[in-house]
Specification:
The protein is mainly α. α2 runs antiparallel to α11 and α5 (142-172) packs across α10 (232-250). It has 15 helices and no strands. The protein has one domain (66-306, 314-322, 332-360). The two termini are 44 Å apart. It is globular, with a radius of gyration of 22 Å. Keywords: Cell membrane, Membrane, Transmembrane, Transmembrane helix.
């Protein structure tokens, strides 16, 4: 098994600006305001129409009896969620950024990425594209960005998969209190186990698989070159997984950010339930949360409705009161999903200014070496 080499990154060669990486990210203030207005209309429709569509017209009357203490606590826990995500990002990328990716840069990139993931749905793909663009502009080569992004995703979502398995199986066998419908417990646990097994198999793929196919590509022409290009996907995945294991062995405290990221979200949801009634058992809360989050994979504009509907449906399957679930989930999503939209847009424009600074610094380096 080939291990991923330690990655030390030098800035890109002078003059290698890769202006094509910047295409599609030329957002103007007008275009951003248009997108935000579109999303605001969709959010308003969701929050006003969903209770009526579910036959729960009196749902919002619960807000009058809600506890301000629990809402404020949920807001503070939301800040902890963002902090954990930022620290996780910094822990993965700071050491390969040649000192460029510090805490401020991590804040700007992650918050801008979170806003992009809200505007462009499909599992946060928009946020990943923006993060990759920013890291390229900071001077990281494409292969390093790809490897480290996979490492970041693996480290971030490993607690997700582990929680689904532990809580799903634990509920089903009676280890944890709460209802345990088969589709909400065993099925997600099996899927998570299979995904972890696939990841373990990918670790066996040589990280230099593309180089090993050089001879095959020369002998077979176009077919070999296509195979060599396709090999970049499993090779980069293997390198990213090896890098994730290296981070775990390093015991970098920043990696605790992944745990804080998920734990804070679940705590926000718990506080939202407590604001309007009793919270479900902890294992049920965790399992319904993670199963409902799969709705984020739906390519719905702005991601509006996918997770909300999935999470409310998951809680209903666990026997949680539907009216309480609707209010708690919508408050949770307002805090954790829509709250970062405005600071994320501001961070995007600040990030663009930081990118211009990086470009000027590279230009000064070119002149000094001329």
């Amino acid at each position: 098994m080939t291990r991923a080499p330690e990655q030390t990154v030098d800035p890109r060669p002078p003059g290698d600006e890769h202006d094509d990486d910047d295409r599609g990210l030329e957002f103007t203030g007008r275009s951003v305001l248009t997108l935000c207005g579109f999303l605001a209309a969709m959010i308003l429709g969701l929050y006003l129409l969903l209770p009526q569509l579910t036959g729960l017209d009196d749902t919002w009357s619960r807000i009058e009896d809600g506890s301000p203490f629990w809402i404020v606590l949920a807001l503070l826990l939301t800040l902890g969620m963002f902090w954990g995500y930022i620290e996780m990002f910094r822990g993965v990328f700071s050491k390969v950024g040649d000192g460029v990716i510090g805490r401020t840069e991590s804040f700007l990139i992650t918050m801008a990425g979170l806003a992009a993931s809200r505007i462009f749905a499909a599992g946060g793909a928009g946020g990943l594209v923006l993060q990759a663009w920013a890291l390229r502009q900071a001077g990281l080569p494409k292969r390093v960005v790809a490897d480290k992004t996979i490492s970041f995703l693996v480290l971030t979502y490993f607690p997700y998969a582990a929680a689904v398995i532990i809580c799903g199986v634990g509920l089903r066998v009676g280890l944890f209190p709460g209802e345990a419908p088969f589709p909400m417990t065993v099925v997600p646990a099996i899927i998570a186990t299979v995904m972890m097994g696939v990841a373990a198999l990918i670790l066996l793929v040589p990280t230099d698989l593309q180089r090993r196919l050089d001879g095959f590509a020369r002998r077979t022409g176009m077919l070999g070159r296509i195979a060599q290009r396709l090999a970049s996907i499993p090779a980069a995945s293997s390198a990213g997984l090896h890098d994730a294991l290296a981070h775990l062995r390093s015991r970098d405290p920043a990696l605790l950010g992944a745990l804080l990221f998920w734990a804070a979200q679940i705590a926000v949801l718990w506080a939202a339930f407590r604001a309007f009634g009793d919270a479900p058992p902890v294992a049920v809360l965790i399992q319904a949360f993670f199963v409902g989050m799969l709705g984020n994979l739906l390519p719905i504009p702005g991601g509006v409705g996918g997770v909300e509907g999935g999470m409310i449906g998951a809680f209903a399957a666990f026997g949680v009161d539907a009216g309480l679930a609707v209010v708690a989930v919508l408050v949770f999503r307002a805090l954790t999903f829509w709250l970062p939209l405005l600071p994320g847009v501001i961070s995007f424009f600040k990030l663009r200014a930081r990118v211009e600074t990086w470009r000027r610094e590279r230009g000064a380096t070119i002149q000094s070496k001329a």
